[in-house]
Amino acid sequence: MDAVPGHRDALAAVSAPLGPPPLRHTLREWPRAAWGLAQLSLTWRGLLSAPPGDGRRVLVLPGLFNSDRSTALMVRYLNTIGYRASGWGLGRNLGRRTIGGEGERLLAIVAEAAEEARAPVTLIGVSLGGIMARLAAHLLPDRVAEVITVSSPYAGPARATRVWRAYQRITGDRIDAAETLALAALIRSPLPVPATAIWSRSDGLVNGLACRGQDCRAIEVCSSHLGVQTRAEVLRAIAGVLAERRAQ
Known about the structure:
Elements: H1 7-15, H2 23-26, H3 29-47, E1 57-61, H4 72-80, E2 84-87, H5 96-99, H6 104-117, E3 121-126, H7 128-139, E4 144-150, H8 164-171, H9 178-188, E5 195-200, E6 217-221, H10 232-247
Parallel strand pairs: 1-2, 1-3, 3-4, 4-5, 5-6
C-alpha cells in the first residue's frame, strides 16, 4: 500500500481538464477484472493476516447499477477480520432514483446504522457509491466517522469517464444540469471527516486522476474499474486504512 508517486504532478493534473481514460485501458477491462478475481482466490488466506478489526460499523455502497451482491466479498472480508460490515440494503444503485432526490433514503440508512452502533459509521463506496458516501458525510458529519472511496471519480467532470451517457440513462440526471453541477461541487468540496481515495492510473472506465482530490489521502493501486472491489490490493489497502484509524 504505497503513497502515490509524483504527488505534486498528479494534483496539478487533477486541476487541469480531464478526458476519459485511454481506449487501450477500456478494452482490457473484462480480462483484467477476471484475472483480479482469480488472484483473490490465491491471496485470500494472506489477506486474513491484516490487523484485527475493532468491531466498528462499516457500510459499503455499491457502484452504478450494482447492488450489494457486487460488494459481498468485500463485506465478507471486513467481517472476517473483525469489523461489523454490511451492504447498504437499498438495491441497485440507480443514483438519486435509489437514494432519493435529496439523498434522504441514504441518509436514513446512515443515521440508523450510527444510532444502532452508538457511534459514527465508516462509509466505503465503490465508484458512484463513493460519490454518495462523500455526499452523506457532508450532510451528516456527526454520523460519519470516515470515508473511503474506491475508483470514485468525484474530483473531476463527468466526461472524464466512459460511462457518463450510461449514467444519464440509468439515473435520469443530466450531467450538465444546474442541480447536478451544484451537487457535484458539494461532493468535491473538502470533507468534514477523514477521507481516503483509492484509485488506479490504469482504470479503463474513469480517469484515475478524477478519483482523488486534495482533501484526502490517496492510495494508488493497479486495477481495472470492473471488479476493483474484489482486488486483493484494494482489500489490503482498506484494511490498512481502517487499522490506522483505530490506532489514532
